Amino acid sequence: MLEKDIERILVDQDEIIEISKRLGKQITEDYQNKKPLIIGLLNGCLPFLAELIKHIDLYCEYELMSVQSYHGGTKSVGNVKITKDLDISVENRHVIIAEDIVDTGRTINVVKDLLLYRGAASVEVVTLLDKPAGRVEPFIPKYIGVTIPKLFVVGFGLDYEGFYRNTPYVGILKESVYNKD
Ligand code: PRP
Ligand code: MN
Ligand code: MG
Q1: Interval between CA 32 and ligand 3 midpoint (Å)
Q2: Is the ipTM beyond the 0.85 threshold?
Q3: Is 67 inside a domain boundary?
Q4: Is residue 107 in contact with ligand 1, taking CB distance under 6 Å?
C-alpha cells in the first residue's frame, strides 16, 4: 500500500541489515571497555537503533531524546527543538548518537555540542544515511551506513508528515505526494 507512493527503493531491508552488522562490528571494536552510551534521536532513529544494537557486542546502554527540526515537511526549517530530554547524566560517558539521517547537519551539531557541554567524555555519531549535499553546517559523522544524493527519502524511520516511518526500506518519495500543484 505505502509502496505506491515510492518512486524507487534506495536501501532495501537486506542492505539495512548488512549495514547495521558492519557498523555494529566497527563500534564493538572501537568501544572495547568503554561501556558506551548510545543516544537515539527520536522519532527517526527508532528502526535503525533497534537493528543496530543487535550487532553491538558490548556492555552498552541506550537512551532516547526527541529532537525535531523538520516539523513534518520536506525541508529542515533550521530551528532545532529538544522536545524530550534525557533523564540521565552523560558526564564522563562515551556517547554515540544514533540517527536515521544527517542532512543540513543542524540537529547533530546542536545535540553534540549540548552533550559535550554536559560533560560527555566523547561524542561520535552513527547514522544510517548521510546526505552531505544537504549540509548548511559542516559535519562528518564517524559511522555512516550509506551516503545518498540530495533526494527526499522516507522509510525506516524517515517520515513525510509523520508517515512512512514504518516501511522496512528507505525509498525516494514520489514528487506527486508532496508537490500538489
Ligand atoms: C530528521 C532526521 C534527523 C534530522 C536530520 O528529523 O530524523 O534527525 O531531521 O536533519 P538535519 O541534518 O537537517 O538536522 P526530524 O526533525 O524530521 O524529526 P523526526 O526524527 O521526529 O522525524
Ligand atoms: Mn530525527
Ligand atoms: Mg522528520
Answers
A1: 33
A2: yes
A3: yes
A4: yes
Q: Give the number of the ligand closest to the Cα of residue 107.
A: 1
Does 176 reside within a domain?
no
Closest ligand by atom to 161 CA: 3
How many domains, in total, are found in the chain? 1
Among protein residues, the one with the nearest Cα to ligand 1's atom 21 is: 43
**54-83 pLDDT per residue, tens:** 999 999 999 999 998 865 566 666 688 899
24 CB-contact burial (10 Å; exposed 0-12 / middle 13-18 / buried 19+): buried
How high does pLDDT run on average in the chain? 95
What are the C-alpha distances in Å from 120 to residues 33, 66, 87, 115? 16, 18, 15, 6
What CATH number should be reported for the domain holding residue 26? 3.40.50.2020
